[in-house]
Records
---
Amino acid sequence: MPDELSPSEAAARIGATTRSVQRWIASGRLQARRVGGRWRVASGALDAFGWPAATNPVATASPIERVFVANRGEIAARIRRTCDRLGIVTLAPATGGPKALDLLDVDAVVAAATAAGADALHPGFGFLAENATFAEAVQAAGIRWIGPPAAAIRAMGDKAAARRLARRLGIPTVAGYDGDDQADATLIRAARRIGYPILVKPAAGGGGKGMRTVRSARDLREALAGGRREARAAFGDERLILERLLEGPRHVEVQILFDGEGHGVHLGERDCSIQRRHQKVLEETPSPAVRPTIRRRLTEAALALGREVGYVGAGTCEFLLDDAGEVFFLEMNTRLQVEHPITELVTGRDLVADQIRIAAGEPLGFDQRDVRATGHAIEVRLYAEDAEAGFLPATGPVLTAEWPSGDGIRVDAGVATGDEVTGRFDPMLAKIAAWGPDRRTALERLTAALDETIVLGLTTNLRFLRWLVRQPVVVRGQARIDTLDAIWPPGSPGTAATGGGGQRSAEATAMDTAWSTAARALGGGWRLNGPPVVRLQVEAAAGPEERSVAITDDPEEAVPPAVVQVGDTVHIDVAGRSMPFRVAAPPDVDRAAMAAAAHAHGGGPVTISAPMPGAVLAVHAAVGDTVAAGDPLVTLEAMKMEHAVTAPGPGRVTEILVTTGQQVNRGQPLATIEG
């Protein structure tokens, strides 16, 4: 039998890339045969093949010693942990302050990596992680790219191209539009053909940024404009696709891993159905809904997509799963996924280490038969956001951060005590995950871990997460992508009864305790023949609250709340929510008169305040305009997400107090309306 070569050996012989050889084999241009599931190329066939001139000679396997992490926060810390274990030096850029590196500037990031003497670059997720031009620029600078080839990123990181490829492979997709013509008129016609409701999605990037649900034609133009703005800000690409909105499916994804020779495996599926604003909140593996037959369809589709584009490294193919068991391809994330820790917990693999090995030219080193998933893992994302105020982003100092520990608990944190959370980046602070031999144990461990977690100084979604993991629909594993819309906030019109009365009662008790704790900490006040009294104010989800509180001796509390005092403000953990208490300001005569007039006449001036910190992206109204309830007044942007501040009722605009581009704080007046 003539000498036979693997694709990588053939590539080295002719000075091409392994990926090029694999594409020539797949297209039939280069003759090869499968031996034990692997391609082998005969020397004679290679010698007779008229290959194109190689532009990038393939690199031989060599160890990686200095990794530049082109990211920040918890994923940068996660990559650093693996590099430290492997004895690899990590190089991290400044991402805050006047010397901060712009992580969306290709040339600046490559220049920084080169200046630092990096021999490899890990993009993490977000920013430029799925930018093919960035991958090429990194490699052109002589730095190894810890990620898939640029061609695979272009084929799959582009949602429109990925949908077309999936259909060509016979993999179902949701009805939609993924064409090149991006004119509003074309998209409006496509939406009419698809039928409402639809999803407007950026063609590039991921993480739910820029996505909008549109239920009627009259809202489409505004959704297109907003989607383009967010996509341009987050990914530098404003192209959009449209998809028919499926009501109530599950969101399930498959983790794949390929080496440079085309050997690939899957590491099972993850269920990411619990989402808010199209962003994941809770993920678990395996999915409670995926039977073996469905798992086979999902994993075969994911591996077929990876093979077709010559994928290398770690990637994730995402699908929708309906109650009939039908599977629809959504997109592929050509990067390490945020929720990769739960896959690591059940498989025992270190995906970052696998990425580094593959980028260094090493083979996968195991096959599908070697992949064994054990137990169950569940993860939640701790965000700097106010779940009780529509999940709006929050900013502020991290005065205290206490993370849980114990059997099966893993925390990937991006902040620590003393850090400052600004509106410049994504609001995710940490991921808290739990493994157990079964789903029930994993959920019980996660619930206990969240009860142990404390973050003081800024508002987070911790209290919401504690509530979420106790909900019957979550405990039973029945959540869909629209579950949160149906159950949160509890007790609001249109939401289902969710129990939780015991937790709400506990929160009320915790609030009473917090008032007393704050009174003792802040002191002051007096009263004849009684304990001294102090008038306190707290910034709650619904706005400022005031109360006169008697200063009493310390009660014998079983579990005193976590407290930190900074100046004249006491930050107290109230059932998972950091709440700032301070002595209330003296009564304001003008404010009292205005409130009395509004109450007496039912139409006094109403001040519209910023519900979150951020930048003023647009001002939609002018002084003298007549507005109706729900009309947009100002659009704010924070953490690359937009939020429209609307009129609470009909009236005439008497003041506009901000301008486009201005930075505002939460609670800052934006406009005044005369009812």
---
Amino acid sequence: MLHTEQMLEQHASLESAQKQVEIALQELHKAQARLRRLETLYNPFSLNDVNAGMGMLEEQPESSLIERILHESAQRTGHVHKPRTKSSSYQFSGMHEIAVWDELEVDRFTEGHVLAHSLSEGIADVATAATQLRLALAQLNTLITQQMAQTVQIRNDALSLRAAPFHVLVARLRSAAQMITTSQKRDIQFEVSGEATEIDQDILDALANPFLELVYNSVTDSLIAAEAAQLPGAYAGRITLTARSNGNEVAIELGFSMPVPGGTIEALNNSIHHLRGSITPQRDSAEGITFHLRFPRSQGMVQGLLVRAGNQSVVVPFSQVHHIDYSKQESISERYDLNTLLGFPSARDISQPIHPWLILQEQAIRLAVRVDEIIGQVDLVMKPLAEYLRRPGITGTAIDGMGNVLLVIDLLELITQRDKVQKQNEPVKVFLPIGQVRFQNHPEPAYQKILIADDSVYMRQSVRQILERVGYTLYEAHDGVEALEQILEQPPDLLLLDIEMPNLNGFDLLTIIRANPLLSKLKTILLTSRSSDKHRQHALDLGARAFLTKPCPPDVLLEAVQSVLS
């Protein structure tokens, strides 16, 4: 793997050398054009004015050869040669020159002609060299293309050595589920596609334990629910597994027809973040859920857009960009500027009035990031940053063919970090003692929307009765997935969230909210039966504005809602 990465790094240097050769060829063409212009100036037969040509001939000095011959003759004979005047040496008939000269003075006339002839020969030599260089450059381009294709083939072969088929993980998950269901005389249906898909062993190893724990807990809870409901038959549920490789990306889907225990996102989050992947939950059926995971096929390579922000060039991986917009006419939830996100001066190039927008897509929410220029596409080896150099939104570095260090950035993390910094001056942590608190002068409650997410119907109705008396607009969700769907469809002003819920628990939902740039602005109050300091601190670390425990007196709940909303 290291050798293939070095070969790919050499390709960047080859491309740089190729560009230098192309520049040299362009300069050669320019020099050739200048020589042709000089040829017209020095060619005595190309002058339009004959008198000007005569003046040039009269001013031409005698050649050194003639001078030496005449000088040696004068020394031997004592006779000094007197050349004829130019007027008597030349006669003109129209535009054609007829020369009458002393044979010893023939060099005086031909010297300019010889110079022009030599210049023409030099121009022809330059043209020949340019043609040869152009042919050599074409051959170099062909060799570079072949070298790159061979390098990619070698790297794909090397990747296959450290890859394993998806069915290796599927077999472990199926075996774990069957061990549980066999003892209960029930059956779990497995639907698998893409078992032969080759996946990096690091990805399979990182997902194995979280997937096994998720399958174990989901099947166990499903069996308990089936036994409690005394459901007939042996069918206990369905688990779907799908894997596919699309270019430089691997996609894995894990679905359940039954509710899954909360905490899935938290269990997978660390592994996914380490692998530079992403996870998206989506409702599969009335009670089921599917987790969509995406990972780069190779952890050491980055393929993306090379963009300019100010005077710096940075790399944006393709996996973050949905498409590019130059017209600024699309419906975008919120727009950002890359210079601002990176802390660069936001001076704009006046000569470039139109700046491209990188459109990011996260479920139903669309974000756009403006860049100064899109330079091109790159395929580089990414190097991790040292611990003391790591910053939020900077995933690594790469080196181009000129030796320039390029930052590889995570746009969503940069946006989230910016929003987090903007919140530092807000009163985000609210601690309220249980007791009698007056609540008056609520600011326009009828226009403020509150989403109540709790799997208990009793708790949802109790909270609704308390808040309806004041005049808030209320919505309900019975689990984390439904809460997420409603947040995306109609974002509330406040989320009242329970921790223990199926499919996505409160901590899972807070993790998703925190990772999404727009959802991170949502204000959240946790209302839960968990009262330990560990749960309280974890909720506040994930961005909760307040932490209340059940049963919560109405006045305490109303005061917390009023404080957070104001």
---
Amino acid sequence: MCGICGELRFDGSTASDEELAGIRDRLVHRGPDAAGLYRSRDGRAALAFRRLRIIDLTPAAGQPMANEDGSVQLVFNGEIYNFRELRERLASSGHTFRSRSDTETIVHLYEERGADGVEDLDGMFALAIWDERRQRLTLARDRAGKKPLFYYRSNRLLAFASEMKAFFAHPGVDMEIDAEAVPSYFIHGYVSGPSTFYRNVRQLEPGSVMTVEADGRVACRKYWQIAYPPASEVRPVPYGEAVAAVREQTTRAVERRLVSDVPLGAFLSGGIDSTIVVGLMSRLMPERVKTFSIGFEGDPAYDETAYARMAAERFNTEHTEFRVTPDALGLIDTLIWHHDGPFGDSSALPMYQVSKLARAQVTVVLTGDGGDEVFAGYRRFRAALESERVPRLAARAAGAVLARIPAPGHERHWLADTQRFFSAAAASFDERMTMWNAIFFDNLTDLLRPEFSRTIPPVDPLRYLAAGRSQTAGRSLLSRLLHANFTSYLADDLLVKIDRCTMASSLEARSPFLDRRLVEYVAALPDRFKLDGRRAKAVLRDAFADLLPPAIDRRRKMGFGVPLGRWFRGELRGYVHDLLLAPAARYRSMLSGAYVERLVAAHLAGEANLGPQLWSLICFERWLQLVTEWRGHRPAHVT
């Protein structure tokens, strides 16, 4: 796991080594162990690298890594899980290896197949290859988007980096805020890819390869997309066969992710997914598994540590846990820095802290992330399907009645779930699945200043679904839900959070449930194998019935959340008041100050639970205050 960056200049100019090192070293947290730099013969192309040693700890595995004659140069972030099979194939074709690393496999694979070689890679990766003979830069990213890769393009150059903070150190990159990204952030809690918060900066999309010629010509193509079969073409599979296959493929996915030359452990939440991963690790590893969990003191609705301890005892792990308190909000500036902007998912706070806790003992962790996305584990999936059976008139009536009932103490109360369900039950299917995961939706117009709204194109809250409509036509409702979730929420929220929060502490995270073979196999299974009535993840639960403690199998899904409502009404009441109600608050140039003041008043009075909304506003305001400092040195507030 590492940090990569570089550039290709089209105007004949070159950057100094000092400039390139300054850009590279903004990513030092991703690779504290070593650094490297390559410049092409004419100086127009440059690759830079920060290394976190995981496999082959010797200098021979350092980067940039070249082929035998130096004409192919590679920088790479991630892990290739099938590198041993590829290495054997390439060695039989005459390629010579000088290291034990997975990195060198990519170099020789490129010599064999060019940019098409990425299709053979099974793993998590973002990479850049400079081909000196062809004068061509190739960028590629893994299928799910586990590893990030951003690029900036102008008439003068194309620059790329693992994180956008590197661009703030680049004298040739103008990091101007893109006002059109603001509504997306307040709908989803993130800017939907491939867009970002900055003009001319975009993400390379998951499962994509981009080639950039020396004259500035760019070509980009998708080499992989998740595919669900049309409802009429779902292949009938005996349930027992599916159970056996899911067990075998999940076990294999975990086993492939245990290759490491440094200490390895796991995040353990006490949910089904992480419990299965840890259970398999305990059977596959010769030593006891080191596990890590996090909870919230005095908030049972948000604290899963009792279940995590149950799983830890079941599998005899070396278990460590940590409790988060309201003073952890002091990390908000650090989180904004590591996310390169505001991030509306407050669970980044405990994720950052458990990552720091784990890094004191291990360098790699396995996680249960991806299980809900692949096996339909979210309660909102079931709600979306059930709402199809509710008559629209009845839904509107029930919603009107429930809206008059005072909000419960927190958003995880059953009444809060019921109010959310009926508030959206009368909307279209696409609107419902968006509203149930949105921060602002119907009230977005109230939030944005009219003067600001007139300066940007009309806001379409369903725009993020447009690119996938051709892939979901004729698919079941559940397949449409899963596709939207995999390509948006997973890629733009969960995987971003996991990568930034772990890499902030130089910790590598691996997600077995996002194994390509497993993802593709489960996507093709009948819906009822995933969501069987009210039983989510049916085939996964049955595949590992012997591993799951009954109490964990039976428990209601909790999720990784933060008790923001109580914090903002209690210990952090003054912080919320001072930051969001300040007359000179910077958000007021884009958002309605009067509406924000009403939101704050309603939450503090207990009239509504608006913790997620206030969190998104706090992050936005602090970003606007901090971003002007990022052009200089690494901010002093970063821990």
---
Amino acid sequence: MAGRLYLSMLATLAAVIAFTTLVLAVVLDFLGAFSLYHLVILVVVFNLAQWLISPYLINALYNVREADPAVHGDLISAVRRLAARAGLPAPKVMIANVPFPNAFAYGSPLTGNMVAVTQGLLDVLDREEVEAVIGHELGHLKHRDVQVMTFLSMLPSLFYIIARASLFAPSDREEREGGFALVGLLSMIAYWVLTLLILHFSRLREYYADEFSVSLAPTRREGARRLAEALAKITASTARMKLLGAFTSPPGFKALLITDPDSAVEDALALSRDWKLVERLARREVTLADRIMELFSTHPNVVKRIRRLLEMAA
């Protein structure tokens, strides 16, 4: 299963690079190297600056602070133990003072690697489930997903800028205007194709991080069970909070909000029956609307993730 997933990621990455090379070759031939190089430099500088300062923005946006050893000593010990098992330097352990349950790995050369868990996650999950979530986030650090996705995000950005510049470029010759319009249209198509390919690649990275989390557990069966229960409880709890108006879901955390709001409260009330909640989610039908929504999401449909984990647990 892990081997097929790895090959799928390589195939998607190869498709992104090949498609980018092809379209850039056409655009380069029309615009000339000089103007295109200026655009490339602009996109690279912007994305690198965003990568370097994004940890500070995340910390401010989600009220993140470094975990206090006197309060969160067990959590810090768990992160260090799992990082050692994963062959990673221990990241900084951060606490996001927000009510919804979630976790995220981030960092840059200016801040070092960090793993943050929300206060809501600590309130909802038990110790083993928290460790399963941490294992998933350590998988992102192990696979350098922040750096990989930063690089890939430059590609659609480049074509979007080319499209805007070409479609609105002033020209005093009608045939020149037609050429710019063609380049603009081609670049906009490239932007959307690359965006969908990169979103697909991001979803594969999430599955890969799930696999990594499972591999850190004492047994694969136990690791899959813990992560499946964690995802089910995160989904039900977040959907209940959304239904009750406890918070408005921020961008970047919408991928786990895939449960039906009409059944979210009932599911959340059954959190003590963890495995029954997992089985209930796994039996949900993945509709055509769910599949379409997934195409534009960075995360896989949570039902499909849980079914995959159930296969691993079996």
